């Protein structure tokens, strides 16, 4: 155990619905610093949402306390027959691994005790420790994910253009329905549909899009840096890229997908380049994204654009 860290003999676990958000303030502040320092992400808007749900007693989860001081918390939400572990953070002031293990175990037990729940998903950004052992001990299937970062000024952009039968157009909310259908088609049989079951159906794709486009589910949506590729005859879109801003001058690619049959022909690259150029014109300096390591084609594309991996983490799935 690192010098100066608290021992864990007096650790207590409290139901998150029994605490006030103010009690979690030291953790919120430390967590926001870690997101800013390691991922260039302003996490404070997310903290405010979590704070509101905690104070309304509507957020399931647990808080770990050592010697009367909060040292970690985690929360989950329920969606139909699925549980989603939405967040987990443990202070660097303590030995993090045992606290992470205990918090995750408490949440797993609570979720598995929920009637008619058949699936649990978790994509948690770890700070200071790996979560894989905790997931594996609970029989989760793990998929490595990469958090990648691009210095926009150093992006490697091409002079290539789409074929004459395709055109790029700016995002419009009237495309939500066709975009949801595109997600279902693009991720059929894809590893990412194993990680996130919203990708498997058109209705799930719509829930995903509403969270990204209409709600602050992943930063503030940037329609001016989001694009569709559509056949020139006006048929439904065959590719799209969606972009948000997560801090001043920092963008995040929340979705990029291409319909089967058009993949491998440079459509994804053109979408990314349009987004990067749009961000550059608006003075953005950084762009981040996450990608599943097994999706080697996408990883190679992003690396060819100049992205580099700055953190790896596990996406876990438990299925009854």
What would your notes on this structure say?
This protein has helices at residues 25-39, 44-55, 96-112, 132-137, 176-186, 191-195, 202-214, 267-281, 296-305, and strands at residues 12-15, 60-66, 69-79, 82-90, 119-123, 141-151, 166-170, 220-221, 227-231, 239-247, 250-258, 286-292, 308-319. Mean pLDDT is 94; it is low at 1-6. 32% of the residues lie in helices and 30% in strands. It is of the alpha+beta class and 320 residues long. Strands 1, 2, 3, 4, 5, 6, 7, 8, 9, 10, 11, 12 and 13 form a 13-stranded mixed β-sheet that branches. Helix 3 links the parallel strand 4 and strand 5. It is globular. The chain has two domains: 12-139, Aminopeptidase (3-Layer(aba) Sandwich); 149-312, Gcn5-related N-acetyltransferase (GNAT) (Aminopeptidase, 3-Layer(aba) Sandwich), CATH 3.40.630.
